[in-house]
Every structure is written in C-alpha cells, then in structure tokens.
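Quick one, probably user error.
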C-alpha cells in the first residue's frame, strides 16, 4: 500500500523545459512515451527509468517546434 503522495506526478516550467517530478518507488520502472499524432507512440529519451525510493525528475523541452503528446506509465 502507498500513500497518495507517492502517486503524484508534478510539473513545473524551468527555463526552456517542463520538468516532471514524482516519487520513484524501488522495483518500479517508469516510462514516458510521446506522439505527434496520438496514433504512433515512441519512447522518450532514454526509455525506462528505474525507481530509486526517492524523488525523480525528467526535463521535457518545450517550444513551438517541440509540441507533442505524452503518456507516463509505471510497471513492476
């Protein structure tokens, strides 16, 4: 069982990036995928991120030429 804070995904604009933040749970893999058309999805950046039992962040570039759709998932 987890408390609700462990399941919260936050976002914050920092310079030219939108930074996603969450609490990464040990033994859980996180993946961000992106699409420009909501049909074809590709892994973003390095693919899978492994939980560390601590805070995790992922910067996403933003701008007019960077418009994309994102999906964030977690699996054990």
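Nope, works fine. Designed sequence:
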């Amino acid at each position: 069982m987890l408390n609700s804070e462990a399941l919260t995904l936050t976002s914050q604009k920092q310079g030219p990036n939108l930074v996603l933040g969450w609490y990464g749970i040990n033994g859980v893999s996180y993946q961000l995928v992106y699409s420009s058309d909501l049909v074809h999805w590709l892994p973003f950046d390095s693919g899978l991120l492994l939980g560390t039992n601590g805070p995790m962040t992922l910067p996403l570039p933003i701008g007019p030429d960077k418009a994309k759709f994102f999906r964030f998932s977690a699996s054990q």
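The mean pLDDT is 84.
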